[in-house]
Amino acid sequence: MGSPLHAPVFLVVCIFIQSSACGQGLGTEPFGKSYGAAEVRKPSQEMGTRFLLFKDENDRRGCQLRVQSPETLQECGFNTSQPLVMIIHGWSVDGLLETWIWKLVGVLKSRPVNVGMVEWISLAYQHYAIAVRNTRVVGQEVAALLLWLEESVKFPPSEVHLIGYSLGAHVSGFAGSSMDGKHKIGRITGLDPAGPMFEGSSPSDRLSPDDAIFVDAIHTFTREHMGLSVGIKQPIAHYDFYPNGGTFQPGCHFLELYRHIAEHGLNAITQTIKCAHERSVHLFIDSLRHSSLQSTGFQCSDMDSFSQGLCLSCKKGRCNTLGYDIRKDWPGKSKKLFLITRAQAPFRVYHYQFKIQFINQIEKPVEPTFSMSLLGTKEEVKKIPITLGEGIASNKTYSLLITLDKDIGELIIIKFKWENSAVWANVWNTVQVIMPWGMTSHYSGLILKTIWVKAGETQQRMTFCPENIDDLQLHPTQEKVFVKCEVNSKRLKQRSR
Ligand SMILES: *[C@@H]1O[C@H](CO)[C@@H](O)[C@H](O)[C@H]1NC(C)=O
Ligand SMILES: *[C@@H]1O[C@H](CO)[C@@H](O)[C@H](O)[C@H]1NC(C)=O
């Protein structure tokens, strides 16, 4: 497609696989040692996996839990009456822990849970293929910790929630498959689980729904380049969320790099490249931080249907909450859920399906551009542009997805305007010449009788009719007001009395 996105995607995939085919100088060096993420620097002599527990939201050092040393549980303040949430980081290009970890620790600490981390940085700071091999070993060590907790202090694995980012998602999967069926882990959340060397592999070689009682995943960077994508595309959980389709994320565009460089200096390069991958983490953090503004995902077969607004149903468990407070029922098979998000936190938007039925009395298709203003009980959103793909030929009902950043309350009035573009002016002249009745009046031949609206977040369905039923014709530059049909029919009854 020649989109400017291809350059960063290519770069990330190169970094991921560190392939010589990508040319020299694309290894770890350009993303220098100075990448200011680390609070905790790992002493290089200490290899292997460490389990850390955090006392409060400002604790950045953590307290080390040692398997077979029960006294460390007390030292680290492990509370056996609370669940255990363990964060598992991913592959590392610089041997440093990333800053999102502390943000996630901070927000998790606002809940009544033990918060820990699986620190495997020395095993993750390797060539990608070696780090991949290490995920299995680290997963087994996590399983050993959990089995020991059950044995020593009767802490059940069902009270454990593993949150794994990128390669860490597969570490969680291997931890789960290393437990036997009687000791299943309660929940695993995969945050943009890594794709290279996992996509298409068998369920036992990656995170899969049978690794825990409940498994959810958020896919945010699955855009493919040369057959590879940073995040895994296939569903691998009970609920797989694909925000904005899962391929790429708003606000992460490479063109924004210049703004990022102005803000963060050259570290912006790494930040920009990781942006869409790491968005999965920030969506999850947002679900804890703005718990009154949770995002809902809706089951759909693909983004195409979702973009037409066809999937905003919550019937029979077809929608679920993204993030920490997800509804934990487990469907028989994986469900793919889609949603739109904003470019920054709070990420939540309000999804609406608009179904617009046109009656075109002209033979010729017309290609008008419209805008809609929506007035709700709380707020008004003005002039949302509507593009209807191909022209309107004969009678057609269009379905579209409209998302709003703010909560307008209950929708009460729609103002539908036919924008008078220069392009239209030409068409209009042609139509007038061709159509004899076009000469006499402003008769456009285009009628809009009904607009059906479905609000995804409230599941409310509404039908809107023209306020003035004596003039149903749409005219260029004119705005038509639509109100709820029930309101209209009541008014009619009153009039006839
Ligand atoms: C352990 O957790 C329980 C349940 O949340 C709480 O009531 C109790 O106060 C906690 N104990 C300590 C020592 O914090
Ligand atoms: C379009 O709908 C109108 C009104 O319902 C009807 O009279 C007309 O025959 C329809 N035209 C086509 C091409 O279906």
TrEMBL record:
A Pfam family recorded for this sequence: Lipase
Domain PLAT: from-to ranges: 350-484
Keywords: Glycoprotein, HDL, Heparin-binding, Hydrolase, Lipid degradation, Lipid metabolism, Secreted, Signal
Keyword Cytoplasm set for record: no
SUPFAM superfamilies: alpha/beta-Hydrolases, Lipase/lipooxygenase domain (PLAT/LH2 domain)
InterPro entries for this protein: AB_hydrolase_fold (IPR029058), Lipase (IPR013818), Lipase_hep (IPR002333), Lipase_LIPH (IPR016272), Lipase_N (IPR033906), PLAT/LH2_dom (IPR001024), PLAT/LH2_dom_sf (IPR036392), TAG_lipase (IPR000734)
Signal peptide (from-to): 1-23
Principal EC category: hydrolase
Matching SMART domains: LH2
EC annotation from Swiss-Prot or TrEMBL: 3.1.1.3, 3.1.1.32, 3.1.1.5
UniProt-listed PROSITE patterns: PLAT
CDD domains, A to Z: Pancreat_lipase_like, PLAT_LPL
Compartment(s) of residence: Secreted
Catalytic activity: 1,2-di-(9Z-octadecenoyl)-sn-glycerol + H2O = 2-(9Z-octadecenoyl)-glycerol + (9Z)-octadecenoate + H(+); 1,2,3-tributanoylglycerol + H2O = dibutanoylglycerol + butanoate + H(+); 1,2-di-(9Z-octadecenoyl)-sn-glycero-3-phosphocholine + H2O = (9Z-octadecenoyl)-sn-glycero-3-phosphocholine + (9Z)-octadecenoate + H(+); 1,2,3-tri-(9Z-octadecenoyl)-glycerol + H2O = di-(9Z)-octadecenoylglycerol + (9Z)-octadecenoate + H(+)
Subunit structure: Homodimer.
Protein's job: Catalyzes the hydrolysis of triglycerides and phospholipids present in circulating plasma lipoproteins, including chylomicrons, intermediate density lipoproteins (IDL), low density lipoproteins (LDL) of large size and high density lipoproteins (HDL), releasing free fatty acids (FFA) and smaller lipoprotein particles. Also exhibits lysophospholipase activity. Can hydrolyze both neutral lipid and phospholipid substrates but shows a greater binding affinity for neutral lipid substrates than phospholipid substrates.
UniProt family annotation: Belongs to the AB hydrolase superfamily. Lipase family.
Name this polypeptide is given: Hepatic triacylglycerol lipase
Organism listed in the record: Microtus ochrogaster
